[in-house]
Write a structure and sequence with these properties.
With 328 residues, the protein is of the alpha/beta class. The protein is built from 7 helices and 16 strands. 24% of the residues lie in helices and 27% in strands. The chain is globular, with a radius of gyration of 21 Å.
Length: 328
């Protein structure tokens, strides 16, 4: 038996030894859900102790469903997981998992600004938040789901720390926020026009441009990169490549973008968790980029489709795409 995980509140409901976890259903539990079941998509019935094997040194989020299919938290684990979608999520770790904490440095208020940009395709004003680096920017990054990356990912603070340490080129970061991400990030031509024809010229004229996002936002970042031959780079955390224009089921739809990728002079960095349904699509995407001769980096993390996974990838992504050894 391996050493029991000590960093999360694992009590009588969940016992962790090495890479194995035994779940003992609390009163009212009929099923177990988590990253390993794609949450509500593939619940595991549970009526007694259930032992599952996880990757070594992994971070795992979980919850229970009652007989009516309603989710509830492990009553023996009061500390919530760091998950903005599932308030009932709890977490544990296996083996010797450690958070890869990113470098952080506060950004002076005068280099952060909120703006609203009127968009002709949407005929409405859109929120934009801009980070200005401490030196003249050498590139511009357009981030999908910008509020989450700014607040949860603390991306501006990570970039500030890396620039000040001389690890990356200074870049302006433009945090964009959708109104309907399910529609806009599924290759909506209005969103393409908004980013490439309105936002990019306004904030990135004369600068190499890159696109960034997670999940459906990661799909949008790759699509924009593919649509813009002059793009310098793209970063995609757990890209939801199983999505089609106008679709609604990112679990079952074809990998529409995969067959439409074209040879590209820019570079791509991909990260994905091994406890998520997008692992195999991400592997196929990396293979497709290799077949096309696209310079890319790829990393799998022992965790799921969540901000613990994505937050750890921000600093490596910035280093890979904006490193001082790259010609900008």
């Amino acid at each position: 038996m391996g050493a029991r995980a000590q960093r999360w509140e694992n009590g009588r409901v969940v016992e962790v030894w090495g890479r194995f976890a035994t779940f003992r259903p609390p009163p009212g539990a009929a099923a177990l859900v988590g990253d390993f079941t794609d949450w509500k998509r593939r619940p595991l019935p549970i009526s007694g102790p259930l032992t599952l094997e996880f990757p070594p040194d992994a971070y795992v989020e979980y919850a229970f469903l009652d007989e009516a299919g309603r989710p509830f938290a492990d009553p023996d684990a009061p500390r919530p997981a760091e998950n903005p979608w599932w308030p009932y999520a709890r977490a544990f770790t296996t083996g010797d998992w450690r958070l890869e904490a990113p470098p952080l440095l506060s950004v002076p208020r005068e280099r952060l600004r909120r703006e609203r940009v009127f968009s002709e395709p949407f005929f409405a004003k859109r929120r934009v938040f801009v980070y200005e680096p401490p030196e003249a920017p050498r590139a511009v990054v357009f981030v999908q789901d910008g509020v989450a990356f700014f607040r949860l990912g603390r991306m501006a603070e990570v970039a500030e720390a890396l620039v000040q340490a001389g690890a990356i080129h200074p870049a302006r970061i433009v945090f964009l926020e959708p109104e309907d991400r399910d529609r806009e990030y599924r290759m909506d031509p209005r969103y393409r026009a908004f980013v490439l024809e309105e936002v990019r010229p306004r904030y990135g004229e004369g600068l190499p441009a890159g696109f960034w996002g997670a999940s459906l936002g990661g799909l949008a970042a790759l699509w924009l990169w593919n649509e813009f031959p002059e793009a310098a780079f793209a970063m995609a955390h757990s890209p939801a490549t199983k999505a089609v224009p106008g679709g609604r089921d990112a679990y079952a739809e074809p990998e529409w973008l995969l067959d439409r990728l074209v040879p590209h002079g820019g570079r791509v960095y991909l990260e994905v968790g091994v406890l998520e349904w997008l692992l195999a699509p991400a592997r196929r995407l990396a293979a497709r980029l290799s077949d096309l001769g696209v310079v890319h980096g790829y990393r799998e993390r022992p965790s799921g489709h969540n901000w613990v996974t994505w937050r750890q990838g921000i600093a490596p992504g910035l280093r890979y795409l904006l490193g001082r050894d790259l010609p900008f």
